[in-house]
Design a protein that fits this description.
8-stranded mixed β-sheet; Rossmann fold; binds ligand SAJ; 13 helices; elongated
C-alpha cells in the first residue's frame, strides 16, 4: 500500500510519520520547498513533542519521503489549511488546489480522504470536481471525510488513541476509509456520512467556544455586580450537573476561534448562539484592554507619572509557546500601539521581537501594574510585592 499526504503541517506531518511508522510507504507533498527539504533530511519545521524522533526514524527507514507533487498511490489524504478570510468566510482554495493536483494520478479503486476542517458539503464538492475532469471514474473510487481532533502538544498520542468519526460519500467509501484508519488508529472509528463528519468537527469546537463565551460573559457581569467570578463558578460547579468553564483573556488558537465561522457563514440566520459566542469571546479581549487602560490612567492621575505595565503571558493558552491568534498577544500589541509603557513576560519563549521579555520576578518588581493574561505555571499572584496593582484575568 502507498499513501500520499498533501499538506505537511501540524496535522499532515504527524499523520504521515505515524502511518509510515507502521511500515506503510508515505509520500508527503508540500508546496513549500523548504518544508520538503527539511523533512527529507529527517528534520521538522514545526514544534511538537516526540515528532522529531519519529520523523527521523521513518525518513531513515525509507517509509517517509517528501516531494512537491503527488505520485500515483492507493490512498490520498488532504490535510491542507482552510483559513477564514476577513469577512469570516472559509477559504477552500487550498483544498481545491490539492484536489486538482491528485486528479491526474487517480485510478480505479483509489481512496481519497479529506482531513482539512471544511464547511458542510465540501467532500461532495470535491467529488464533483474530480468527476468533472475524470467522468470515467464515476462509482469507481472511494471518498471520505475524516476530521482530526488532536490537541497541539499531544498530537502523536492523540492521533493514535482518539476516537474518530469517518463519513464517506457512500457506504462503501465509509467502510473503505474505516479499514484504512484501522491500520494506525487504536481509538474507536465511528461510521457516518460525509456531511455529518464535516459538521462533527465544526460542532466540537463551536461547543467549546459557546461554553467559554458563557464563562466570559459571567466574568463581565460579575465584575459589574462586585462578585468574584472564580468563587461564583467554583460554587455553581458544585451542582452535580453544572460544569462551567474558565473565563480568560479571550479565545485563541487556530481552531476554536475559527471553526464556528464555518457554520455561521453558511447558516447565518440559524446560527445565532454560535455567532454570539464568537462576538462575546472577541469582545472579552477588548474588555481586558479597557480594564488595563483604565487602571493605567487612574494611576497616572494619582501618581503624576505614567505607570509601567507588565503583560504576563503572551501564548494563546497556559504552558505552551504558541502565540498564533493569541488574545494576550493582541492585548500587549494594542497597549503598545496606544503608547502605554509596557514590558512582557513569556517564560515559554526566549526572544521576542517587539517586546522586552523580562524574567517573572524582575517584572513583578519593576512594573506598577501587573496584568495576568495567561495562567502559566510560573505565575503566582502571592509573589507580587505589595503596593502593586494586580489585574488577574485568568485566576493564576
Ligand atoms: N480557554 C478558555 N477557557 C477555558 C478553556 C479554554 O478561555 O475554560 C481558551 C484557551 O485559553 C485558548 C482557547 O480557549 O485561548 C482554546 O484552547 P483549548 O485548549 O480549548 O483548545 P485548542 O485550540 O488548543 O485545541 C482545540 C481542541 N478542541 C476541543 O477541545 C473541542 C482540539 O481537540 C482540536 O483538535 C483543536 O482545537 C482543533 O484543531 O480543532
Amino acid at each position: 500500500m502507498k499513501i500520499n499526504i498533501l499538506g505537511l503541517g501540524y496535522i499532515g506531518l504527524p499523520t504521515a510519520a505515524l502511518i509510515a511508522s507502521k511500515g506503510i510507504y508515505v509520500h508527503g507533498v508540500d508546496v513549500v520547498q523548504d518544508v520538503v527539504d527539511t523533512i527529507n533530511q529527517g528534520k521538522i519545521h514545526i514544534v511538537e513533542p516526540d515528532l522529531l524522533g519519529l520523523v527521523k526514524h521513518v525518513v531513515k527507514s525509507g517509509y517517509l519521503k517528501a516531494g512537491s507533487s503527488p505520485e500515483p498511490a492507493d490512498v490520498f489524504i488532504i490535510a491542507v489549511p482552510t483559513p477564514v478570510r476577513e469577512n469570516h468566510h472559509p477559504d477552500l482554495s487550498y483544498v481545491e488546489t490539492a484536489t486538482r493536483t491528485i486528479i491526474p494520478h487517480l485510478k480505479e479503486g483509489n481512496l481519497v480522504i479529506i482531513e482539512s476542517t471544511s464547511p458542510v458539503g465540501t467532500t461532495e464538492k470535491m467529488q464533483k470536481l474530480i468527476l468533472g475532469e475524470r467522468p470515467e471514474l464515476k462509482d469507481k473510487f472511494y471518498m471520505a471525510y475524516c476530521p482530526e481532533r488532536v490537541l497541539p502538544g499531544k498530537i502523536i498520542y492523540e492521533l493514535e488513541h482518539n476516537d474518530r468519526a469517518i463519513g464517506g460519500i457512500d457506504e462503501e467509501s465509509t467502510q473503505k476509509a474505516i479499514g484504512f484508519y484501522q491500520n494506525f488508529v487504536k481509538g474507536e472509528l465511528y461510521a457516518t456520512n460525509a456531511r455529518t463528519a464535516e459538521m462533527v468537527k465544526l460542532v466540537e469546537n463551536s461547543s467549546r467556544d459557546v461554553q467559554i463565551a458563557f464563562a466570559n460573559e459571567l466574568s463581565i457581569i460579575s465584575d459589574k455586580a462586585g462578585i468574584d467570578v472564580w468563587e461564583l463558578i467554583r460554587l455553581a460547579n458544585k451542582h452535580p450537573r453544572v460544569q462551567i468553564l474558565r473565563p480568560g483573556t479571550g479565545v485563541g488558537g487556530h481552531c476554536i476561534a475559527v471553526d464556528p465561522w464555518f457554520i455561521v457563514s453558511e447558516f447565518s440566520e440559524e446560527a445565532r448562539i454560535i455567532r454570539m459566542a464568537r462576538e462575546i469571546n472577541s469582545y472579552k479581549t477588548e474588555w481586558v484592554i479597557e480594564k488595563i487602560k483604565n487602571a493605567a490612567l487612574l494611576f497616572e492621575k494619582e501618581h503624576h507619572r505614567r505607570p509601567l505595565i507588565a503583560a504576563m503571558g503572551l501564548a494563546f493558552k497556559p504552558d505552551i509557546d504558541d502565540m498564533r491568534e493569541s488574545p494576550s498577544l493582541y492585548v500587549a500589541q494594542s497597549l503598545k500601539t496606544q503608547g502605554f509603557d509596557l514590558v512582557v513576560v513569556e517564560p515559554n519563549v526566549e526572544k521576542l521581537e517587539d517586546f522586552d521579555n523580562l524574567p517573572v520576578h524582575e517584572a513583578y518588581h519593576r512594573a506598577d501594574i501587573i496584568a495576568f493574561l495567561v495562567g502559566h505555571r510560573e505565575f503566582d499572584k502571592n509573589e507580587v510585592p505589595s503596593g502593586k496593582i494586580v489585574l488577574d484575568f485568568v485566576n493564576v
